[in-house]
Transposase IS116/IS110/IS902 family protein (hydrothermal vent metagenome), 279 residues
Amino acid sequence: MGKKHVSLEVVNPNAAGIDIGSRSHWVAIGQDAQDVREFGVYTEDYRELSKWLKKHEVTTIAMESTGTYWQNVFSFLVAEGFDVILVNGRQTKNIKGKKTDILDCQWIQKLHTLGLLSSSFLPDSTTDTIRTYSRHRQNIIKQVGATVQKMQKYLRLMNLRLDVVVNDIVGLTGQKIIADFIAGQKSGIELAKHRHYNIRKSEEEIAKALQYNGRKDYYFALKQEWKTYLHLQKQIDETDKEIKKLLKTIIRDDENKKRHTVKKKTISEKTKMPLEIQT
């Protein structure tokens, strides 16, 4: 019995495939050697790429979502009027034999021509912008956590056991004690006077926990980390302002969102009791 041959229908006759790289992109518009070109990652390279694709009447393009290297060329080609789909790398990893950039882009082009690739979900530009701000804020918060751990380490090495007498060394009491200590106050008794009334430990016990051992190297390191902590807090505040400004703009320009926005109640509205009318 002879082998069966299965033919696939061409779905996208004017398709191109792009293998995304960090320093260059390989583009295929067909399966022959002359159908493949390499382009750089500068804007002028994208312009040249667009002209080449239009010259060969390409209308739809598929590319892999490699890191963040795809974002600029993707946005540029979409703005140029091409139908661009972003493909998960798992869909294009079935190529056999020796792997090369040329083979990769031709394989992507072939799969896209046959309609075998599905586009990954991409948020709209507004959602993408909010996501960028949010992810940036999350990264800063992670840096804050690492900085606080270093501060706690240096305090402990100086025999300042702030972590024992307060739950959070960067809480209200902890920040005041650290700031005063860095400003030059080394007396545990004086530092303990920053105790907030909600702290369970007594002022006397806090004073016992804050006995500086005189290590100037750790003191210097703590000052550096404290400056980093304050800087990161400032960055978080600035990011929050940008997010708030963006959300206000989005709500202002969308009537539907305006109707579904809950207005912040004033203090008088929160404390106002409803009147019951008795008949």
In short: DSSP finds eleven helices and five strands in the chain. The chain has two domains: 15-113, 127-255. Residues 7 and 214 are 81 Å apart (CA to CA). Residues 15-113 form a domain with the Nucleotidyltransferase; domain 5 fold (CATH 3.30.420.140).
